[in-house]
Design brief:
Blueprint: H1 2-5, E1 22-25, E2 43-46, E3 49-51, H2 57-60, E4 72-73, E5 94-95, H3 102-121, E6 129-133, H4 137-149, E7 152-157, H5 163-169, E8 173-176, H6 180-184, E9 190-195, H7 203-209, E10 210-218, H8 230-235, E11 239-242, H9 248-261, H10 275-283
Helix pairs in contact: 3-4, 3-9
């Protein structure tokens, strides 16, 4: 939201109505949404995507997040969740389980699905070892979700002061990402490493930390090119991959999983009357997770 308000990506159109992790109540169903399982009065959520074409090959295959005709982002030329009401394509309106606290469900719809989708995409199971780079908004949800998934989770953080909090989130190990010796000691361990930060890293150390056929999955918007040596790809059959958010099915699965396992993002709550204070709180870097 803040990136769009500040036009950091160059595609903001003003006046802009932000809010892309929305929990609300269905007030009306259009013709296309009739008989699709949604009901007036039902609690639902909308994330980064509000609609897709529903007829390209990706949409037909259930990969609507990759819509070939360009999906509709909830806050790009579209009224987002800070409006009094929001319209969206029925597939992207996600039912919220009754036992999932609506105050914590919102972040799952964008940040949460961004780090959950790699688990589905790479068929990660409880027997696997997963690393998470960067323990902020995305990273802290990655730790909670992968821990609940049953994985052995290692957090890579540049802030040692967060160690106790990170362990409380479910991580089994915390490694100082600035400690090259500690990184070298992890050689060949990880089936999946999720990179949530938007900065260049000691890439060679993380490639070395991957197990054979391991994946380094990028969800942080790294602005510089990432060097990928062919010897690493060939010798260990390793891969560097990436993904956006996730499909409507993955979003539904995530909310059901979070409701069943009790996974909740760490949030701070402001009344809507204090939305400008909340935005400034975020702009000042004071938000915790």
């Amino acid at each position: 939201d803040l990136s769009m308000i500040d036009n950091e990506w160059g595609n903001a159109k003003y006046p802009l109505i932000a809010g892309h992790e929305i929990i609300g109540i269905v007030t009306e169903l259009g013709n296309e949404a009739s008989n699709k399982g949604l009901k007036v009065g039902q609690r639902v959520g909308i994330g980064w995507t509000a609609d897709s074409c529903q007829h390209c090959d990706c949409c037909i295959a259930g990969k609507q997040v990759l819509c070939e005709n360009g999906s509709t982002a909830t806050i790009v030329k579209h009224a987002g969740g800070f409006a009094e009401s929001v319209r969206a394509g029925w597939q992207w309106v996600i039912p919220v389980p009754d036992n999932l606290n609506p105050e914590v469900a919102g972040p799952l719809l964008c940040g949460g699905i961004t780090v959950f989708d790699p688990l589905l995409r790479h068929q990660i199971q409880g027997v696997h070892k997963v690393g998470v780079i960067g323990i902020g908004g995305l990273g802290h949800m990655a730790i909670k979700l992968t821990s609940a998934w049953g994985c052995e989770v290692t957090a890579f953080s540049s802030n040692p002061d967060k160690t106790d909090e990170i362990l409380a989130m479910g991580a089994h190990h915390v490694v100082n990402s600035r400690d090259k010796t500690a990184l070298r000691a992890l050689r060949g361990q990880f089936d999946l490493i999720i990179d949530t930060v938007n900065a260049s890293l000691e890439w060679a150390s993380y490639y070395a930390a991957l197990a054979p056929e391991g994946k380094l999955h990028v969800v942080g918007m790294v602005l510089e090119p990432i060097p990928v040596p062919a010897s690493m790809l060939i010798g260990g059959a390793k891969a560097v991959t990436g993904s956006p958010t996730g499909s409507p099915l993955a979003l539904r699965q995530l909310l059901r999983f979070a409701a069943r396992t009790g996974v909740e993002p760490t949030v701070e709550v402001f009344p809507m009357s204090k939305i400008n204070d909340a935005i400034q709180h975020l702009r000042d870097g004071k938000a915790r997770y």
